[in-house]
Amino acid sequence: MRALRVRKPMLTAMLEHATYEAPREACGLLAVTPAGSVRFVYCLSNVDRSPSSYTIDPAEFYGAARHAERHDWEIGGVFHSHPRGTRVPSATDVARAPSPAWLYLVISDDSVGAFEIVAKRSRQLEIEIDD
Ligand SMILES: [Zn+2]
Fold first, then answer.
1. 128: CA distance to ligand 1 center in Å?
2. Among 2.40.240.20, 3.40.140.10, 3.20.20.70, 3.30.70.260, what is the CATH number of 25-101+109-130?
3. Residue 35 C-alpha to ligand 1 middle, in angstroms?
4. 104: CB partners within 8 A, 6+ apart
5. How far is the CA of 4 from the centre of ligand 1 (A)?
6. Which residues are 122's β-sheet partners?
7. Domain positions in the chain
8. Which of 2, 18, 64, 91 is buried deepest, with most CB atoms within 10 A?
9. From the CA of 66, how far away is ligand 1's center (Å)?
10. Cis preceding linkage at 23, omega within 30
11. How far is the CA of 10 from the centre of ligand 1 (A)?
């Protein structure tokens, strides 16, 4: 089974971003190694400013991609929060998933779920947290 590895401070950054943005959904991008380790977390703006949807600010998306490229990293995942929902991807999240190679993190109530979304189906992944 594919697993996601993330260092605790990066997980904390995502959770703090979600807390700060609540009751709106928070979102961001992840630089991920081919083996599935999170290298960097980009906490970005949700231009929807909505409790039930997110769209990453396009200029910030581009900036994160440029930053990752300069470090020889790949953007390989996205995270967002469900302030009033569960930590599983919604039907909309699954329908809009941009790449089967990406990892999807969903945050709710101070916990995180990790998924891959292939052929419009989400599958939960294990999360390994390093200190
Ligand atoms: Zn969602």
1. 22
2. 3.40.140.10
3. 24
4. 77, 78, 79, 89, 93, 97, 114, 115, 116, 117, 122
5. 19
6. 117
7. 25-101+109-130
8. 18
9. 25
10. yes
11. 20
**What gap in Å lies between CA 65 and CA 42, rounded to an integer?**
10
Instruction: Express as a percent the part of the chain with pLDDT over 90.
Output: 87
Contact 64, 57 (CB under 8 A): no
Query: Per the structure block, which two tokens stand in for 24?
Result: 């709106």
For 103, left (φ over 0), alpha (ψ -120 to 50), or beta?
Answer: beta
* Residue 96 alpha carbon to ligand 1 centre in Å: 10
Could you read off the pLDDT of 1-37 as tens digits, one per residue?
578 999 999 999 999 999 999 999 999 999 999 889 9
Distance, CA of 99 to CA of 32 (rounded, Å): 14
Q: Are 4 and 33 in contact (CB under 8 A)?
A: no
Q: Which residues partner with 29 through β-bridges?
A: 42, 78
